[in-house]
Structure formats: C-alpha cells, structure tokens
Specification:
The complex is a heterodimer of chains A (386) and B (64).
Chain A lengths: L3 H33 L1 H9 L16 H11 L4 E7 L5 E7 L10 E6 L15 H11 L3 H29 L14 H15 L1 H33 L14 H11 L3 E7 L10 E8 L8 E7 L5 E3 L5 H14 L4 H27 L5 H21 L1
Antiparallel strand pairs in A: 1-2, 1-4, 2-3, 4-5, 5-6, 6-7
Chain B lengths: L8 H22 L4 H29 L1
Helix pairs in contact in B: 1-2
The chains are: A alpha+beta (386), B mainly alpha (64).
C-alpha cells in the first residue's frame, strides 16, 4: 500500500538515483547518438575501396596467402585475429607486437574476400567511432570505467522504476500529456519531464537493462572461456607449444563442414592471453537476423588440424547476445536507427529537465508539494489499491 | 488540462501502460528476425514519439 511515507521514500529514491547517474547518462546518451549510426559514419570517414562483385558462389581467396602477405608487410608483428566484414566481401587481418597489445598498437590490413588482393587504400583513416565507443563503454578508464558505468546503469534502472511510481501521485489531478504552456518555466519543464519520461519509460528501461547486461558480458564471457579453454588444454599438459601453424584454409573448411548454415565471423590465432596457445579459435554466427547475433566457437589444433568444439554458451551469455541489438537499435535498418536516435534525444531532454528541476528548486518546493499531496490523498490511494 | 477531480491510479497509468505495451511489443517483434517483425518494430517505436508530439501540439493550441 502506498502511504505518505512510502511515496516520499520512492520520490527521494528517484531524485537521488537520478542525480547521481545524470552526468554519466548524459555522456552515454550523447556518445550513443553517433554509435547508432556507427556503420554509416565509418563508411563515410574511411573511404573503403570498392570490392569485387559479391557473388556468394564465387570461390574465396586463400586465407593463408592473406596471412603470408600480412606477415611480409609487418615482419615484426604477428597475426592475432582475422575478421570478416558484415556488409562487404572483405577480410581484415589484425597484427600486433604481442598478444596483450593496446588498441593503438594494432595494425590492420584488408583483403578482398574473393580476389585476395590487399586493399592498399583501405587503411582506416578515422578512429572516431572507436574512440566514441571507448567513452561509451568504459570512459577511457578500462575495467574501472566499465564498473562505474555498470553501477550508473543500475541506478538508472532504479530511477526509472521509482519515477514510474511517483508519477501517479504527481499526476493525480492532471490528465495524461498535460503541458501547462501558460505557467512558469519550472512548471513547464516539470510537465515536459513527466510527459517525455513516462512515454519513453519502457524503451529507456530496455536500453538501461541491456546496457547493464552488455557491461557484464566481458567478465562473464572471460570467465566462461577460461574454463572452457582450461578443459580443452588439459590433455596437452607438459607438451611443448607448437612452432609451426597449420593451414588456416583447411581449419576454416573443417569448421564450415562441421557447422553448416553458419558463416565465419572471425578467427583468433594462437596466443597466450585469450583463446588457446595451441588452436585457431574460429567463431561462427548464424545467417538469420536473430542467429547472426549468436556466436559459436570451435578450436582447431594448429598442428593436427583436429576439431574440438567448445561447449555451448551458457544461457545468460546467449541472452546478452540476443539483447545486444535492443541496446543499439541496429536490427531494423536506417528507419529504426533514426527512431532510436530520436528516442535518445528525448531521453537527453528528460535528463536535462530533471537536472533543471533540481537546480531551480526553491526550498525543496517539490517535496513540500508532495507532502501536501500524499497526506491529503493517502486514504484515497490506499482505497484505490485495495 | 487540469482535471477537476482526482484521478484514480488506473486512470493515471492507463495511457502510459498502453504506450509501454506497444513499445514492448515492438521490441519483442524485433526478435522474430523477419521483415514483418522489423517493420512492426519500427511502427511501434514511432508511437511514443507521435504521442509526445501530439500532446505538445494539443497543449500549445489550448494555451495559445
């Protein structure tokens, strides 16, 4: 039952959780805007050269040759992973000085999937989206930034739930969508905050929750992967590490045959930081809209070419994979991205209006107003709920 | 738009819940993975924006 006391507690919860996370959410919302259009911005800034006509039946070029070309181009570096472009027939080969290299130390070469030709002009000229992504996901502060943002996302969800609860008492004498344009600026901002907040609440709740899940993904995934790799490597205990890598083409072909109706997403080369020091870790994804978000990995022994399937991702990592597009809004083409951006801007207005209401407060007028409201209406609310 | 009498909780939350349900249905449809689902998703996520614009236009016309 909502009593005057519980409504006051909910209101204070809404106020303080919102205030604490507002600045962080503003950063997330503002950096989220370009990320919604990340593909388009990258395409615009990078001036990718045209690839050969995409013919799914055409034979693909040798991956081993791409690796060899990359190693010749950067003899001091080693290939860490290869990734297949989602939109164009293009393969990126990423080279690093050592497995634990920082993003700035990575060198990337791109090859045409069908001709195998190195695309000389395809070197990334802009790292704008990469940098925005780092701000959005970790505030340039690594794991600490992720933890902070995770806590802020949880506070945001609490603020939304408490906002929904206190909406009722505040709106008890106002019709839905009320905007008192003839009143003082503070009242107008209050009405705008209520209208925009309550209408976009469901969307904001989903984006907030999926944001929390995305931030939990890395540690949960690392935990699962380290257990799986440990299990796979147990039989190799005491054996020397391989000095020669077997054919990547053969390894990829083995995985293609083992996992029909999937496509190769990326390959992690043997390394001692993530993945296995003895295997190509080949990640595949489905071909439908839904399954294209679900990755499955297999390990191929670089010496014997033997396939070792990894265990299925646990349910919570599957949920995170499926929910990712619900955070970024990238599952419905450009129209949905535009809607997502407009909802993002709406959320920015909610945050700014909330901050304005707090900054322009006069002797906690809202609390006094709330006290009068809830004390006079507590009995009515209780009756309505019972 | 002031209501002369106090509204019940069901009256207060009726429209917000309806809009929320439409959004939830739209986001759920996105997971179906087909074109129709994505199209419905776009329509559903446009609803809150239409509601906001409609409310503001009505309010501004009333107070003009």
């Amino acid at each position: 039952v909502l009593t005057a006391r519980t409504v006051r507690i909910w209101y204070r919860t809404h106020k303080w959780t919102s205030l604490v996370c507002t600045i962080f959410l503003l950063v997330s919302c503002i950096t989220g805007l370009p990320l919604i259009f990340g593909d388009e911005i990258n395409h615009l800034l990078d001036h990718q050269p045209a690839t050969a006509a995409a013919d799914v039946n055409a034979p693909v070029a040798s991956l081993d040759r791409m690796v060899a070309t990359s190693s010749q181009r950067y003899p001091g570096l080693k290939v860490l992973f290869m990734a297949w472009d989602e939109h164009d027939p293009r393969v990126s080969v990423n080279l690093v000085p050592h497995s634990g290299a920082k993003p700035g130390q990575v060198r990337t070469l791109r090859f045409d999937t069908y001709t195998g030709n190195l695309q000389e002009g395809s070197k990334r000229k802009s790292h704008f989206i990469d940098r925005v992504t780092r701000v959005h996901t970790e505030l340039f502060a690594g794991a600490f930034g992720q933890v902070v943002l995770g806590i802020m996302a949880v506070l945001f969800v609490i603020a939304l739930v408490s906002g929904f609860v206190v909406y009722g008492p505040f709106m008890r004498k106002l019709n839905f969508g009320t905007y008192r344009a003839n009143r003082a600026p503070r009242v107008k901002w209050f009405d705008l905050h209520n209208l925009l907040g309550i209408v976009t609440l469901c969307w904001a709740l989903v984006v907030g929750l999926t944001g929390v899940m995305n931030l939990l993904q890395d540690p949960l995934f690392d935990l699962w992967q380290s257990r799986e790799i440990h299990r796979v490597l147990a039989p190799y205990k005491g054996k020397p590490l391989p000095t020669h890598l077997g054919s990547l083409d053969d390894a990829v072909q083995t995985v293609r045959e083992a996992f029909p109706n999937t496509q190769i997403a990326f390959v992690v080369f043997p390394n001692d930081v993530f993945g296995s020091p003895r295997h190509y870790q080949i990640w595949t994804k489905g071909t439908t809209t839904l399954t294209s978000r679900m990755l499955t990995s297999a390990l191929i022994d670089v010496e014997s070419g033997q396939l070792t399937p990894m265990g299925r991702l646990p349910w919570y990592l599957r949920v995170v994979e499926i929910s990712r597009p619900l955070h970024f809004g990238d599952y419905g083409g450009l129209p949905l991205k535009i809607l997502w951006a407009l909802l993002d801007v709406t959320l920015i207005v909610v945050l700014v209006s909330g901050a304005y209401l707090w900054l322009s407060r006069r002797k906690t007028q809202l609390e006094e107003e709330l006290d009068v409201l809830v004390e006079s209406e507590t009995e009515k609310i209780r009756v309505a709920l019972e | 738009m002031n209501s002369p009498t106090a509204l019940s909780l069901s009256q207060i939350y009726r429209w917000p819940l309806l809009v929320g349900l439409v959004i939830a249905a739209g986001l759920g449809a996105a997971l179906s993975g087909n074109e129709a689902g994505r199209f419905f998703s776009c329509l559903a996520l446009g609803v809150p924006l239409v509601v906001i614009v409609a409310c503001l236009i009505l309010a501004l016309r009333k107070w003009r």
